[in-house]
Amino acid sequence: MAITRKQKEARAKIDSSKVYSLQDASALVKEITTVKFDASVDLAVRLGVDPRKANQMVRGVVTLPHGTGKDVKVLALVTPDKEAEAKEAGADYVGLDEYLQKIKGGWTDVDVIITMPSVMGKLGPLGRVLGPRGLMPNPKTGTVTMDVAKAVTEVKAGKIDFKVDKTGIVHAAIGKVSFDAQKIQENANELLQTLLKLKPTAAKGAYIKSIFMSSTMSPSIAVEEKSIL
Known about the structure:
alpha/beta, 3-stranded parallel beta sheet, 8 helices, globular
């Protein structure tokens, strides 16, 4: 693909032989964004783990101090006695059987699904639809709970879940380029500190191998691991 003039200018601002502090990268990512919309800021962290081994799987949740900048659409699959609670907390869609039927028909126009333990049995048959899209609720990420209001509120406030992929990399959106640099830095640091706390005891050698920050369609900025330890 041909590189546009703006993309060339963006790449020229990055010293490819240099690793940047988290503070500097958070400021630079705003400068190298060329798209006309409010681009997402993403972090890619390569970990020194073998995700094929259960004792080296890294998965967790983190509440970003400044949110993601995205209007997260939440579906609360709950029994009638929990519907008012979910609506008051800000869930975009609330119900049960009618939404189960919609999902069965292929509807997945939501970002997060929150449900109750008693409902999980009904979601099992929908695993083929929800699983590949990362929408299947999971107790480990707080999306299967009796405290529906708290779960909805946290997701709306910027709670995200992450999971190392099969190549050992954690990808996560940590804000928008419209955020000021300090907010981007603080959101990124919150995710990185959470990853450090989740280091598996079975992981040997360097745990965080590399960190790259980028925005939508921008080049990547190498971040110095020492700046977050």
